Amino acid sequence: NILIKDVCTMLNITRETLRAWEHNIYEPFVTHYPLIISFLGYNPCNFETDSLGGKIKSFRHLHGLTQDQFGKLLDTNGSVVWQWESNKRIPVDKTQKRILTLIENR
Q1: In whole angstroms, what is the distance from residue 67 CA to residue 65 CA?
Q2: Are 96 and 52 a contacting pair, CB within 8 Å?
Q3: Burial class, 75, CB count within 10 angstroms (exposed 0-12 / middle 13-18 / buried 19+)
Protein backbone atom coordinates (compact mmCIF):
# COMPACT_ATOMS: atom_id res chain seq x y z
CA ASN A 1 0.00 0.00 0.00
CA ILE A 2 1.28 3.42 -0.89
CA LEU A 3 0.21 6.61 0.82
CA ILE A 4 -0.80 9.79 -1.01
CA LYS A 5 2.00 11.70 0.70
CA ASP A 6 4.48 9.15 -0.65
CA VAL A 7 3.12 9.53 -4.18
CA CYS A 8 3.42 13.29 -3.87
CA THR A 9 7.01 12.99 -2.67
CA MET A 10 7.93 10.62 -5.50
CA LEU A 11 6.38 12.93 -8.10
CA ASN A 12 7.69 16.08 -6.38
CA ILE A 13 4.22 17.65 -6.23
CA THR A 14 1.76 18.84 -3.59
CA ARG A 15 -1.44 17.08 -2.57
CA GLU A 16 -3.41 19.89 -4.17
CA THR A 17 -1.65 19.27 -7.48
CA LEU A 18 -2.41 15.55 -7.30
CA ARG A 19 -6.07 16.28 -6.58
CA ALA A 20 -6.25 18.69 -9.50
CA TRP A 21 -4.82 16.01 -11.82
CA GLU A 22 -7.22 13.38 -10.50
CA HIS A 23 -10.22 15.66 -11.05
CA ASN A 24 -9.04 16.86 -14.45
CA ILE A 25 -8.82 20.44 -13.25
CA TYR A 26 -5.53 20.67 -15.09
CA GLU A 27 -2.94 18.40 -16.64
CA PRO A 28 0.60 17.78 -15.44
CA PHE A 29 3.37 19.92 -16.86
CA VAL A 30 5.40 18.09 -19.48
CA THR A 31 8.33 18.11 -17.05
CA HIS A 32 6.34 15.84 -14.70
CA TYR A 33 5.76 13.09 -17.25
CA PRO A 34 9.04 11.16 -16.85
CA LEU A 35 8.33 10.72 -13.12
CA ILE A 36 4.68 9.85 -13.78
CA ILE A 37 5.66 7.25 -16.38
CA SER A 38 8.29 5.80 -14.05
CA PHE A 39 5.81 5.65 -11.17
CA LEU A 40 3.01 4.06 -13.20
CA GLY A 41 5.26 1.74 -15.18
CA TYR A 42 3.61 2.81 -18.44
CA ASN A 43 2.94 5.95 -20.47
CA PRO A 44 -0.59 7.24 -19.77
CA CYS A 45 -0.45 9.53 -22.82
CA ASN A 46 -1.83 8.12 -26.01
CA PHE A 47 -0.30 10.32 -28.69
CA GLU A 48 -0.54 9.28 -32.29
CA THR A 49 2.94 8.58 -33.62
CA ASP A 50 2.21 8.13 -37.31
CA SER A 51 3.08 11.75 -38.08
CA LEU A 52 6.35 13.49 -37.34
CA GLY A 53 4.43 15.94 -35.14
CA GLY A 54 3.05 13.08 -33.04
CA LYS A 55 6.51 11.54 -32.71
CA ILE A 56 7.90 14.85 -31.51
CA LYS A 57 5.14 15.33 -28.93
CA SER A 58 5.48 11.77 -27.64
CA PHE A 59 9.27 12.11 -27.39
CA ARG A 60 8.99 15.40 -25.52
CA HIS A 61 6.63 13.93 -22.93
CA LEU A 62 8.76 10.82 -22.44
CA HIS A 63 11.77 13.01 -21.76
CA GLY A 64 10.04 15.87 -19.95
CA LEU A 65 11.02 18.51 -22.50
CA THR A 66 9.07 21.67 -23.14
CA GLN A 67 8.62 22.84 -26.71
CA ASP A 68 11.27 25.49 -26.11
CA GLN A 69 13.75 22.94 -24.73
CA PHE A 70 13.16 20.60 -27.67
CA GLY A 71 13.51 23.53 -30.06
CA LYS A 72 16.87 24.49 -28.57
CA LEU A 73 18.16 20.99 -29.33
CA LEU A 74 17.46 21.77 -32.98
CA ASP A 75 18.45 25.46 -33.00
CA THR A 76 14.85 26.67 -33.25
CA ASN A 77 12.14 27.81 -30.84
CA GLY A 78 9.03 26.49 -29.14
CA SER A 79 6.69 28.22 -31.56
CA VAL A 80 8.15 26.27 -34.47
CA VAL A 81 7.97 23.03 -32.48
CA TRP A 82 4.28 23.73 -31.77
CA GLN A 83 3.70 24.17 -35.51
CA TRP A 84 5.44 20.84 -36.21
CA GLU A 85 3.43 19.04 -33.53
CA SER A 86 0.20 20.53 -34.86
CA ASN A 87 1.19 19.47 -38.38
CA LYS A 88 0.77 23.11 -39.43
CA ARG A 89 4.34 23.25 -40.64
CA ILE A 90 6.62 20.53 -41.96
CA PRO A 91 10.34 20.79 -41.23
CA VAL A 92 12.74 20.81 -44.17
CA ASP A 93 14.30 17.43 -45.00
CA LYS A 94 17.58 18.17 -43.22
CA THR A 95 15.72 19.10 -40.03
CA GLN A 96 13.43 16.07 -40.32
CA LYS A 97 16.51 13.85 -40.39
CA ARG A 98 17.94 15.63 -37.33
CA ILE A 99 14.65 15.17 -35.48
CA LEU A 100 14.39 11.47 -36.30
CA THR A 101 18.04 10.90 -35.35
CA LEU A 102 17.44 12.66 -32.02
CA ILE A 103 14.30 10.64 -31.32
CA GLU A 104 15.86 7.31 -32.28
CA ASN A 105 19.12 7.82 -30.36
CA ARG A 106 17.82 9.06 -27.05
Answers
A1: 6
A2: yes
A3: exposed
**DSSP states of 10-75 as a string?**
HHT--HHHHHHHHTTSSPPPGGGHHHHHHHHTS-------SSHHHHHHHHHHHHT--HHHHHHHTT
Three-class secondary structure of residue 89 per DSSP: coil
* pTM of the shown model: 0.88
- pLDDT tens track for 62-76: 999 999 999 999 999
- CA dist., res. 20 & res. 96, Å (int): 37
CA–CA distance, 38 with 12 (Å, rounded to integer): 13
Q: Name the nearest CA neighbour of 104 among 74, 59, 66, 63.
A: 59
